[in-house]
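Request: Give me one sample?
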Amino acid sequence: MIEALLNFDFMRYSMLSGILIGFIAPLIGAFIVVRRLSLIADALSHVTLGGISFGMFVITIIPAFAFINPMWFGILFAIIGALLIEYLRTSYNNYQEIAIPIIMSAGIALSAIFISLADGFNQEIVGLLFGSISAVTLSDLMTIIAIVVIVLAFILSFYKELFILSFDDEYSKVIGIPKWIQLLFIIIVAMVISASMRVVGILLVSALITLPVAISMRITKGFKQLIILSVIIGEISVVGGLILAFYMNISPGGVIVVLLVLILAITMLFQRFKTRALKGAAKNENGRSN
């Protein structure tokens, strides 16, 4: 693995991208899960795939645009999809959750159309669906770095507002938190999903955003602790998944998600045994006192 990192550019790009994604995906995921918007990651990932396949189609019919990274089309589509979700959530005020399946369906439909127009499934599309170690280019890495900088600047600047929005939407309206912060947040989510797809894959990116948070919620008690532990778990799963995928010669996305599921299962089992032990100790203590 070390030799591969030293000798091959794509390995360095993948590992650096994975480390960055393992940081920002759970970071933004903490706010998403607390707001009960976990499915938004699935919707925007499918919209992103539609954008990338559209970019591939454009490059197919207009070779002069070959210099354009299809990932940029994916980011553009994801941002548009995020804004449409927010618009539909306000339009269906009493049924806000319906906005997510509407946009998800549109994303899947666009993906099917443009993949067909762009000569169907190929190795690049498969890599986008499930992640690929060799798919990350220098251009992708630079884009991911730019997204990481934007995400960190946004969260550091508006952490207090995001915290209030996540836990009490009604209170945020009462104290007058601007709506544009919510719009920026949803755009940031779209950018994180677009950045994560190269390593984890479109179909599995939501797992990297939500599973580290789901694991951390069973252990931590405070929101800041939740964020820190989620990021640590995200980094462990991504780096471990990339290393295992390299040696097993398989797509990293599936390995990363399986590692997260195993960590979640181990955490739940440990808590169950701990609860039983505490109940047993309490029962013994009561027996002695009687």
